[in-house]
Amino acid sequence: MSFVLVDTDILIDLAAEDSQAINGLKRLELQSGLAVSVVTEME
Description:
Layout: E1 3-5, H1 8-15, H2 19-31, E2 33-35, H3 38-42
Parallel strand pairs: 1-2
């Protein structure tokens, strides 16, 4: 299984309930796993 690295900007959009970010990640999640980097966690 491959993983998609989710950037801080996308997580901010998710927190703001941006429908484009939500729908995009839902589509990606069907195809691969989602991950965040250690740097993104620290931000």
